[in-house]
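Reproducibility note. Readers wishing to regenerate the assembly model reported in the main text can use the exact inputs given here. Chain order matters: entities are listed in the order in which they were concatenated for prediction.
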Amino acid sequence: MNLATILVGLAVAAFLGAAVYFTVKDFRKGGCSGCSNRGKCGKHR
Amino acid sequence: MRKTIALAGNPNCGKTTLFNQLTGSSQKVGNWPGVTIDRKEGEIKKIDAIVVDLPGIYSLSPYSPEEIVSRDYLLYDNPDLVVNIVDATNMERNLYLTSQILDMGIPTVIALNMMDAVEKEGTEIDIEGMSRLLGCKVVGISALRGDGIDELIEAIDSAEEKPNPIALSNNSEKVIRQISEVLRGTVPDERLRWYAVKALERDSLAIEKIGDSWNQVSEFIEAYEKAEDDDSDSIVASERYEAIGKTVSSVLKSGRTPGEYTISDKIDKIVTNKWLGLPIFAGIMFIVYYISITTIGGWGTDWVNDVFFAEMVIPGTESYLESINVDPLLVAFVVDGLLAGVGAVLGFLPQMAVLFLLLVILEDSGYMARIAFIMDRVFRKFGLSGKSFIPLLIGTGCGVPGIMASRTIESERDRKITAMTTTFVPCSAKLPIIALIAGAWFDKSALIALASYFIGILAVLISGIILKKWPSLTGLPSEFIMELPPYRTPGPVAVIKSALSRVWSFVRKAGTFIMLACGIVWFLSAFDWSLALVDDINDSMLANLGNAVTWIFIPLGWGSEWQFTVGTITGLLAKENVIGTFGVLFGYADVAETGVEIWSIIASMVTPIAGFSFLVFNLLCAPCFAAIGAMRRELGTWKATGAAVLYQTTLAYSVSLIIYQIGTLLIYGTFGIWTAISVLVAMTMAYVLISKDPFGQYRKQSAEVTI
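Running the prediction on these inputs yields the following structure tokens for the assembly.
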């Protein structure tokens, strides 16, 4: 395994880790990741 | 000492906008106890006060959960002040709630909102005069523009006096005084008038407070009703409106001749017409999809797929990684897995961006509100009301808030049916699937998108009929009263901001959740069970898993290809995953080398009618896990949620089966056992739709009665 592979591998792992973090964060807010209508449920206008 | 302020007003009066202006980012969202209604609180840091946002209500009568929550908060939680937001363009309707709040004797400040719209109409309001009449500070604001907010905060800080209630007739005031004397000592003095008026309206809460003295009070009320020759609650309501009318005419100088139609009224005469409404709606949606899917958006998608990804990003990344000697397996993961999957989804971004822009224009112009009104007529014939259409409209963005919006429906039966059927209408995540099918088989025809929309609505209507015959869901549709906001020209900045926000959400989802799913799909499709790399994808773990279940979908026309089944299953995580999965499995990354687009590969695998059956199945079947979670919150139990998902998937399977089998018979003349079964399924559905008692509910009930 050469240095380029290791560095690219680490970069990909970091990217995937960030993806996991933001996905879990969005799901915890009660909606699917990237829901653009969150909050506009018609209750409080 | 920290002040507690209750924010009260009608729905659509700008309450949330004002709440956001006052509290900024210091908001907390919870739940009112015992009901599934959001409770929002925030701080006004300038004056050390807490604002509690009450649900939007038209009155404080105890009929809906929202009204009860608001009434109980004002009566028992003793806020220091009420800020009552009144829509200045609709004062007569808004002041009904105001008159009830003033009866409570709580210090009140009235925020007269939408003053910018009032000025535009050429109308003047004597705000000082209104303050004198109502005995409380009135502040003109525009919550949207942020005008008058500082003055409002000053008024909140200095308000202490109790307001003047809006007086009714002399006879009514006499009876109210009589009842107040009976109530004295049992309720706080400042609440005497409120309870007395409620007793006059025969409200159960007031009757409970009066207790044993109710007989005496009842005599007062009966004498009063005899004198006025009407029921006491009708008298009170009509006198309130009369008093409000006098107040409004004394402070309002209208720029319009009474009875004169506004431009909005003139447009509505055509757009909400009994015969023209639906065709106009269909025509507008066709134009929207034609521009976004077929032409402008379609051209953008072609460029992103054929040039940006196929000639620039993917070959560029691949050759760079190879040039620095990155391990071929890692290159394959990045290029054929992550980039291929995410690229396939982002390829649809131009179509989505144009579509979002057009839909935001329709929403901001006020037209979308008319759709709910038009659809009420149609929905009512199928056992639902137009109130059920509003969650569907919201669900066209994302099913999760659409399902949550079913909370606004008072009828439990309608609420449950709406929560179960909201996801039948395509959400934005399903739009790439529609664009895929339209592009692969139907030359990007806008009719496919239009058909998908109307199949979704039809599924909702059919479900309304079927489900209302289910024993626990019978009942009449709820009443539907809604306000049509005036039409307005959407502001270009607001439209672009809103559309960009939705585009960013799409991109963000592709770069996070979809990318993760594509990585997993690539891994499962690149290795076999002994974790050895495969030469033929059909030997992979994913192919094995897909082949184990794909036979279920053979009658639908696409089950012979395990990739379609795997795409459908990964769609349970997020519907865009269907595209991402296809991108990985059909080699989106290989276009630069082979020149063969994946859409032509997909199109060559099954017939167009099978492709359409695949689309319909994915539109109607179980939604993504996030939406299933939202359904669980609204339906209450996992059992009910499981039943709902089973219903959705069964309906999806049945409809797709009928479309494929009957379609194949008509187009190719092929008849087989499954054609006969699909006819039986269609007849069963027709029976359930037409029969009055398909589940034997009434026969069972009459049998119990006989015994």
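We highlight two features of this model. The first strand of chain B starts at residue 3 and ends at 9. Confidence is low (pLDDT under 50) at residues 698-707 of chain B.
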